[in-house]
Here is the input.
Amino acid sequence: MRNLPSLSALRAFEAVARNCSVTRAAAELHRTHGALSRQLRLLQEHVGAPLFDKVGTGLQLNDAGHALYDLARRAFDELESGYARVLRQARDPGLHVACSATFAMRWLVPKLERFYRACPEARLRLSMTSARQMRGEDADILIAWDLSAYPAADRQRAIRLSGTAFGPVQAPGYKPARGQRVRIAHDYTGRAWEQWQARDRRPMSFARELAFPHTHLCIEAAVAGLGVALVERRLVRRELEEGALVAPRGFVAFDEGMMALPAAGRPLSREGLALVDWLRAALEATEE
Here is the structure.
């Protein structure tokens, strides 16, 4: 048996402490002032010590109250987010996958029919975002190549799917005047250019830069002849094969591979494990 006060008493205490007012907490919880006061009294009796000091006509947390409030706030925050996740899964079951919009449009979605053929009972729900927004807090799996901004614990949990290779691409007819080459950059993954230059080692100078929030837009800008974009090889395979783009320097492998980051605190479902296995095989098949 757990030695805990009632949930209603803790909820009342957390609301009073957060609002610094019994009246405001009562309005938030749709309870009367007297009902919340009774809950606070029961909680203090359970603790065996006061949690508030009277200051004028109001209440102020004492040391014990601050300690309990910190604990209750974290617990209620976690309970709230976990409950929201349960509701989403109950109302919209399936595997929630987060990835960049460009990866989804240019690689994942065109190949999903093969995954569904292998796992006909699977249901995927995709969240497509920009690199800046990709954090995947609510997703079961996040797919990304650059996890450098993530905590070390997340990077250690990540599952390697395949290698990555980046190279500069441009329209075949792109011939800028000497010293006027334009670099097409991604707003949120600028380090890709730095990594590529460190590996290629042949200098490539640029007069100016155009930036876009999605890799897809960078690719389209290169196709339109606006400059040189740095892109992962798989994402421009069609343009290279059709001659809409050329890769004059080829592609170089990056240390960071394509990774699958499972959500923290919950194991991958059978669907999640199946997706990881399929992604690894499908990505490796298109690596060259």
About this structure: Strands lie at 52-55, 58-61, 95-100, 124-129, 141-144, 159-169, 182-186, 208-212, 228-232, 252-262. The mean pLDDT is 87. The two ends are 59 Å apart (CA to CA).
